[in-house]
Amino acid sequence: MFVGLQGAGKTTTCTKLARHYQSRGFRVGLVCADTFRAGAFDQLKQNATKAKIPYYGSLTETDPAVVARDGVDKFKKERFEIIIVDTSGRHRQESALFQEMMDIQTAIKPDETIMVLDSSIGQQAEAQAKAFKEAADFGAIIITKTDGHAAGGGAISAVAATRTPIVFIGTGEHMLDLERFDPPRFINKLLGMGDMAGLVEHVQSLKLDQKDTIKHITEGIFTIRDLRDQLQNIMKMGPLSKMAGMIPGMSGMMANMDDEEGSLKLKRMIYICDSMTDKELDSDGKIFIDQPTRMTRVARGSGTTVREVEDLLTQQRMMAGMAKKMGGNMKNMQKAQQAMGGGNKAQQLAAMQKRLQSMGGGGVGAGGMPDLGSLMKMMGGGGGGGGLDMNAMMKQMGGMFGGGGGGAGGGRGGRR
């Protein structure tokens, strides 16, 4: 059962949480017990339909306790594993609404009551949370709107007074913008230090097809087609501001650039790649140095400038250099594995793990190859032992996002 103030984002958060558990194999149902706010049921219905989650509500019944009980009974009969009940927003000074909240709680006897708090209310959170705690005795808190200018530090410190755990935080308005609350990771993002673990989780949750790119990187190869695939994956990963908060050093670079501007620059780079032939896409970019007229043709076909094409090729060369360095490390690691061919499997894996750590990496995946998390850690590993410096990489990416004279003018133009 969800409780909280008006406008805190309860209805949206209900759908986000339902989608979170549904994607993990649970049967989840949503019940709208908000009969007070006009349009509450329509909002939940729209969100649930979009996320393909079963829902229950009533346009005629005005008693929220009856609606909640009927909805819970319906989903229990249909053997749903998780039932989420949305209630109307209320303020601690509204005693009648507080009594209504307790009536709903008595009617459905929820296993867990969750309070939804807006991060922007700051220190006021303490008084509100205590009042709700006394009335509904909630066992968990979700803090919403942490993607705004208010980072939520005040709300979190105030909530600590209730001695109730924060289980999730809302990081945006989209259905995927819900994260488990992890204090060290949250503080790192708050201080602009990034959240690489969160980035790896986010990439893996999207189930992006990166087999070819990872295979190329382990071989020390990074083509223009690989760069285009990575640009398209970045576009799928959500708002650039959210991504920037996860990557060390990048949040500062994106500070003066909104999501729309950053997305436009990425799209223009994809247009450039789409105007290339297969031979050009599968090359390492040297073909453009040998035949500069190709750059002019690609710029015309993509509606961009020659300078933007040059910037993209420069970015590809930087990434290719990183891939070559990683590929050499991979080959050395494979040679070491082959040299131990007759040894104990556990000993081989231990040796591989040690080698990965010396490279700045992490775990070993199936078949003795590093998993995606390890590859990303290796790319972000702190300097020594052959690891790649993520801060340096972000400076290079800064050129990619920052343009370089091409600007946003010219439009897409007549593509060929």
TrEMBL record:
Top EC class, one word: hydrolase
Assigned GO CC terms: cytosol; endoplasmic reticulum; signal recognition particle, endoplasmic reticulum targeting
Stored SUPFAM superfamilies: P-loop containing nucleoside triphosphate hydrolases, Signal peptide-binding domain
One family name in Pfam for this protein: SRP_SPB
Keyword set, alphabetical order: Cytoplasm, Endoplasmic reticulum, GTP-binding, Hydrolase, Nucleotide-binding, Ribonucleoprotein, RNA-binding, Signal recognition particle
InterPro entries, per database record: P-loop_NTPase, Signal_recog_part_SRP54_M_sf, Signal_recog_particle_SRP54_M, SRP54, SRP54_GTPase_dom, SRP54_N_sf
UniProt entry tagged with the keyword Glycoprotein: no
Domain of life: Eukaryota
GO molecular function: 7S RNA binding; endoplasmic reticulum signal peptide binding; GTP binding; GTPase activity
The EC number(s) this enzyme carries: 3.6.5.4
Subcellular location: Cytoplasm; Endoplasmic reticulum
Gene3D superfamilies: P-loop containing nucleotide triphosphate hydrolases (3.40.50.300), Signal recognition particle SRP54, nucleotide-binding domain (1.20.120.140), Signal recognition particle, SRP54 subunit, M-domain (1.10.260.30)
GO biological process: SRP-dependent cotranslational protein targeting to membrane, translocation
PANTHER family xrefs: SIGNAL RECOGNITION PARTICLE 54K PROTEIN SRP54, SIGNAL RECOGNITION PARTICLE SUBUNIT SRP54
Similarity comment text for this entry: Belongs to the GTP-binding SRP family. SRP54 subfamily.
Protein name as it appears in the record: Signal recognition particle subunit SRP54
Species this chain originates from: Cladorrhinum samala
